[in-house]
Amino acid sequence: QLVESGGGLVQPGGSLVLSCAASGFTFSTYAMNWVRQAPGKGFERVSLISSSGGSTLYADSVKGRFTISRDNAKNTINLELNSLKPEDTAVYYCVNGTNDWGQGTQVTVS
């Protein structure tokens, strides 16, 4: 099970921290992803973090503004969103390495 939290309404240039709490699988053995879907658009993988947390990847659209992290002791991943833009408005999903998805958390930048 994956449960996201931390979304909300923020002004352009603002910041948010999204969290995802994982359970029901061996969290520390899986890479984890944040994926988003903007209104009327397809899914975009925003960021990936390796099982150990030692490697990360970011979409060009968020590179330098978003930071992914994980805590394998707490079975959580975070996504820090900085310098937010209106085009970052989307539902953000936590996805594990077996393609299980959370319910999503809405981020609105306006």
Descriptive notes:
The termini are far apart. This protein has strands spanning 2-5, 8-10, 16-22, 32-37, 43-49, 56-58, 66-71, 76-81, 90-96, 105-109. A hairpin with a 4-residue loop joins strand 7 (66-71) and strand 8 (76-81). It has 110 residues and is mainly beta.
Task: Please give a handful of descriptors for the protein shown.
110 residues; mainly beta; six-stranded mixed β-sheet; four-stranded antiparallel β-sheet; globular
Write a concise synopsis of the structure shown.
The protein has 110 residues and is mainly β. It has strands at 2-5, 8-10, 16-22, 32-37, 43-49, 56-58, 66-71, 76-81, 90-96, 105-109. A hairpin with a 5-residue loop joins strand 4 and strand 5.
Secondary structure blueprint with pairings:
Blueprint: E1 2-5, E2 8-10, E3 16-22, E4 32-37, E5 43-49, E6 56-58, E7 66-71, E8 76-81, E9 90-96, E10 105-109
Parallel strand pairs: 2-10
Antiparallel strand pairs: 1-3, 3-8, 4-5, 4-9, 5-6, 7-8, 9-10
C-alpha termini separation: 31 Å
Global geometry: globular
- Would you tell me the overall average pLDDT? 97
Listing every helix as H and every strand as E from the N terminus to the C terminus, the arrangement reads EEEEEEEEEE
User: Would you identify the regions where 5 or more consecutive residues have pLDDT less than 50?
Assistant: none
Quickly count the helices. Answer: 0
Task: Report the C-alpha radius of gyration, rounded.
Answer: 13 Å
Could you tell me the number of beta strands?
10
Largest sheet: 6 strands, mixed
* Estimated structural class: mainly beta
Q: Proportion of β residues? A: over 45%
The share of residues in helices is under 10%
Adjacency order of strands in the biggest sheet: 2-10-9-4-5-6
